[in-house]
Amino acid sequence: MMVTASHNPKADNGFKMYGSNGAQLCEPHDTHIASLILENLSPWVHYKAAVESVMASPHNDLPQLMDSYYAEMASTLCFHKSTNPSSTLKVVYTAMHGVGTPFAERSFATFGHPPFIGVEAQNTPDPTFPTVAYPNPEEGKGALELSFQAAKDAGATLVLANDPDADRLAVSELQPNGSWRMFSGNEIGMLLAHWLWEKSVEKGQREKLAVVASTVSSKMTRALAEKEGIRFEETLTGFKWICNKKFDLQQEGYKVLLAFEESIGFCCGDLVNDKDGVCAMSVFAEMASQLHIKGSNVSAHMEDSKLREGGKYPTEVAGFKIAHVRDLTVGYDTSTADNKTTLPASTSSQHLTFTFENGCVANLRGSGTEPKLKFYVELHGPNKDQVTATLVKMVNSIVDECLEPSKWNLKWTPLENDASKL
């Protein structure tokens, strides 16, 4: 059992009950326990004395459990331990007057991240929450004013926030115009799922991967899962449902990359069976640090992730319907039963194939030896003039709509309706 105030009104405490699978209890066990509580409202022992007795016991397993928790976190969810220390990304962290700070510090150290900048006025537990009206980072920018000020003072561009019991994670990033972008829980879930899938593939595991989300969460992540052959399961709202489903998938031999809900709750990997803001913040910080090392940031990567999550491939060009899409960059092919390519896939290949309903086939790829984007477009038919006119229209539209030369300042000359030049 866990007693926690979380982000409830400051006069209220709550508690969570866990079963032997590490997930919160579901029906009928939770209702049975509730009825037993009502039958035993008088305390059996003095609460404070009981807690002090347990903590003073020589059989206290907490230190050993904490060591195991961080060791498992490092071995299963940290992928760039050697380069994380070299990141110059500055991060601000707030515990929101809760318990997160010492655990967040150790989590960051476990990943090899440079120390974050703490919000001094909010770093230690204070049940009166004196600096915020409502201690829930899900409320958005209003709850993070001190974090933004700390970031401004330190020149930081990323803010990570836990709620008071540190099981939720909020993220905000400084934009070029000086404003702060608050990422929604759905966006953070999409980014984490994409990152953990990418790292799993890099380590050689594509099969038996899964993602779990509540039914009210965005379907962006489901689109990613369908595109990459990841099993996607949705549940009722609440982590007691989410992580019991996660446990069921684990029993079937699946590696659950992420379990999440839109209210900024994230469970990364197989470490625990509940939402965990301490773990999620370091996983997210590693992703952000690696992007920073490459000269990018989270906001730019979010847009790129949306383009690759399965719902952003074009469905038609110049009025011509696309029947199938193949992306050798990520191994996606809509023409196969399992949506996986029969040709080898590689993140360095950058090769797209569109097969149109009229028989036209267009291949777009980056040159392996020159700074060029190449396209190969073919169409056949009995009437040469008609095929030529259609092909010219399709080639010009494919280049304009898919490669966007004017947007990216690419040099190219549109085709003319002349068969001799094709």
Give your account of this protein's structure.
The protein is α+β, with helices and mostly antiparallel strands and 422 residues long. Helices cover 36% and strands 18% of the residues. It contains twelve helices and 17 strands. The chain has helices spanning 29-39, 47-56, 62-77, 101-111, 145-154, 185-202, 220-228, 239-251, 277-293, 298-308, 384-403, 405-408; strands at residues 2-4, 14-16, 91-94, 117-118, 158-162, 169-174, 180-182, 209-214, 231-235, 255-261, 265-268, 316-317, 320-327, 332-333, 351-356, 361-366, 373-378. Helix 3 crosses helix 4 and helix 4 (101-111) crosses helix 9.
Secondary structure category = alpha+beta
> What's the total count of β strands?
17
What's the SSE pattern? EEHHHEHEHEEEHEHEHEEHHEEEEEEHH
Radius of gyration: 26 Å
Number of helices: 12
As residue ranges, the low-confidence spans are none
How much of the residues is beta strand, in percent?
A: 15-25%
The first-to-last residue Cα distance is 73 Å
Described by the principal axes of the CA atoms, the overall outline is elongated
Largest sheet: 6 strands, antiparallel
Average predicted local confidence, pLDDT:
88
Helical content stands at: 25-40%
| Oligomer category | single chain
